Amino acid sequence: MSVADRILAQNPATSVAAECVAFVGDNQTHSVVASVLKEYFAEPLVRDGGTNQAIEYLGSTPAPSVLIVDVSEAASPQTAMLSLSAAVPEKTKVIGIGSINDISVYREIVDSGACDYLVKPVTEKALASALNRTEESTQPHVVESTPEQKTRIAVIGSRGGVGASTLAVNLAWILAEERKYKTALIDLDLEFGTIALSLDLEPTRGLREALENPARVDGLFIASATAKLTDNLSIMATEENLTAEAQFNPNAVDALFEALGRINDAIVIDVPRSSYAVRRRVFEAASEIILVTELNLSGLRDSLRLLQGVREVAPDTPVRIVANRAAGPKQAMQLRDFQKALEHKVDLQLPDEPKVFNAAANTGKPLAQSHARAKVCKALRKLAGEIQMPEKKTATQLQTKGKAAAKGKSNQKKPSGLSGLFKRS
């Protein structure tokens, strides 16, 4: 009989299970864990050790409700967590602690059955958030659709000042307030982004951390790092100082989109032209890319360069070309000449209405809200109507799907023995 089978077969009536047990491998983590657990549990146990010590402990003691294990010393944290998850009953919520800050490691550990994975140095806030999620995971919840089914719209300008941020703001507003989709709007220009400024919002905090430490991204983190403009529209836009360069982790884009996709139907991303690694990951993850330009020589040159970049990293992702200020004083080229040189049609032309744009900028509101009848808003509504959006669910459909998901989860069995160690989702 394997260690896992022996643990699962034990009679829990022989001793009383602790509500929470933690095995940690260093003094700093021990101190943080002990401090947080005493606020959540009556008699938590915090011991030295890791996966092996946890399994040895479980061999003679009933499994606790919550088990926290330091896997940083394991040769393979993913395999260690798989072994541990196979050794505890389904009701036990497992939280892993490690030193590897990588989204693929995070995913594999969570896929193995753990509720969460925290990267050292563990903070009291991060551990408290993880414990709160273990409580949430015991409650049935409605799953609308997987994050991969959500619409992700990347908006980028061929050059600065062509109106990409304005388009992103108004497109997000129309999707959220007129078409009633839950929408998140992200400004990935952490230093010079204008979305928060244009909406008269205080810059949010946490976007930089999300892009540097993907393992920290979760539901509670998203809630604290977003500003609710309306019930359907949330904003992530920061204003970092100019004295230190942000160290982007390109994999963090996936973690951020997945977390936002759990609570939103659409994600609109204002993509800066700098930071190639992040721009590439956004393009790869996008369901649609909108390139905003002006009909002039510089707009043509940089549109050609950006289109080439998109074709290299996301050849199957549809790209829409939007010409801003068409028929205005900044249109230096005829539409037919621009399209011929670009070898791509211009999908939408936005009329030049400087008075309308200036008035909207002074109100701190989206153009589609403050000047809803403007010609440019009519064009933007046409664009929003052409974007492929997830199917809306009725309340009855959501309730039925949620019950089915909860039932399916309750019927799942944890892998045991060696078969569990080699299972991959």
Give helix % range.
Answer: 40-55%
Rg over C-alpha atoms, rounded to the nearest angstrom = 25 Å
Instruction: Give the distance, in angstroms, between the N- and C-terminal Cα atoms.
Output: 26 Å
Count every beta strand, where a strand is a DSSP E run of 2 or more residues.
Answer: 13
Largest sheet: 8 strands, mixed
Secondary structure tally, helices:
19
Proportion of residues in β-strands: 15-25%
The third-level CATH topology of the largest domain is Rossmann fold
Within CATH, the superfamily of the largest domain carries the name P-loop containing nucleotide triphosphate hydrolases
Explain the overall architecture:
By secondary structure, this protein is α/β, with parallel strands linked by helices. It folds into 2 domains: 3-141, Rossmann fold (3-Layer(aba) Sandwich); 147-386, 3-Layer(aba) Sandwich (Rossmann fold). It has 19 helices and 13 strands. The chain has helices at residues 3-9, 27-40, 51-58, 77-86, 103-111, 124-136, 164-178, 195-198, 207-212, 219-225, 252-261, 276-285, 297-313, 335-342, 354-363, 367-370, 375-386, 395-411, 417-421, and strands spanning 20-24, 45-48, 66-70, 93-98, 116-119, 151-157, 183-187, 227-228, 233-237, 266-270, 288-293, 319-326, 348-351. Strands 8-9-7-10-6-11-12-13 form an 8-stranded mixed sheet, sandwiched between helices. A 5-stranded parallel sheet has the order 2-1-3-4-5, with helices on both faces. Helix 2 packs across helix 6 (124-136) and helix 7 (164-178) crosses helix 17. The protein is elongated, with a radius of gyration of 25 Å. The model is unreliable at 6-14, 138-148, 394-403 and 405-425 (pLDDT under 50).
